[in-house]
Amino acid sequence: MIKDPALRLQNYLVFGEFGEVNPSISDSSTFTFLTSEKMTELFEAEIEGCFLYSRHLNPSTNYLAEALALMENTEAAIVTGSGMAAISSTILQICSAGDEIISGRTIYGGSYALMKNFLPKLNINTHFVNILDLDEIKSKINKNTKIIYCEAISNPLLEVADIVELRKIADKHNIKLIVDNTFSPMMLQPYNFGAHIVVHSLTKFINGASDCVGGAICADKEFIASLRNVNDGATMLLGPVLDSLRASSILKNLRTLHIRMHQHSKNAMFVAENLEKLGLKVIYPGLASHPQHNFIKTLLSSGYGFGGMITFDAKTKETADKLLIMLQERNVGYFAVSLGFYKTLFSAPGSSTSSEIPKEEQEQMGLSDGLVRFSVGLDNNIEETFEIIKQSLKDLGLIK
Ligand SMILES: *Cc1c(COP(=O)(O)O)cnc(C)c1O
Known about the structure:
Mean pLDDT: 95
Bound molecules: pyridoxal-5'-phosphate
């Protein structure tokens, strides 16, 4: 195996029908067959290089999936119409009524709401735990437990899951470990440390252009084939397909992900270090003050830093709101949810992306009202951008 994920991607050579440097786009929903035997055969099992219908498999979406599998170092992958589609399809493929999930409590608000409010309608119930507390996790396991779910770097508190230990627990009880790697593509490959299944929102860093929504599931061949089984596969039957035109545009953006992650991380490190120097409470895995700083270093691929996400405390919701509008007016970035854009994106998770989590639970997990989340952009002059941030913090009385 080539160690560097970017190099694995660079070695992935696919060409168009006429030698185009980008693969041709398969702009068709369906595919012809020359014999009826072949069609029957394909309904029974997948045949390499043979396509049936684009909800099942499409050459263009498959190119993107193969590239993502190379990055995550999994045998296979499948792409979906959104990150939530990847997460919900994965869970529904594994769980039946009566099954249980153990999930980290600091996760993306949509994933939390899916497990908290939607899945119980199917009698699939979730225990939300402190993902760093292995004893708490063990205490929630019973014969119905099918999944341990977490984010490699959690949203928005940037806790780093101990994938190695979680896998050991999962193996003892025949449980699947699912890791959402949306915050840390390229820089960390959860599969290498024990995740059975890695899910992504392609919407964020991987596409990086904030122009579309997409998702991916990376796992072994058997699980990916089960998802598109014509008789009982979740992606086949629930139908969360990604369009082939979009898949090919995301693949083109994926080719620069290594450079973007490098720059996002470099800028985020600068902002985090300097905000901390100003006396603010900053959470960033690259800071020595982060509780899992030393641990995450054992997981990271070399050269991509600690990621583009930082969180800090602006004390009250009012100050946080004022700060974000001020930063937008001063062109530091956009007051918007989402992440991985060329401009810095900022929001106050308590009242936005994590608002699905009830207030008292937010407090329990340390998600304060004044918490501000930054997805640091690709600024070529982050020192100058930081001066504007500093002035804004001064203007609001957050620093002297
Ligand atoms: C955005 C996000 C999702 C959901 O992805 P969509 O593409 O918006 O459906 C899931 N997990 C994390 C960590 C996210 O940031």
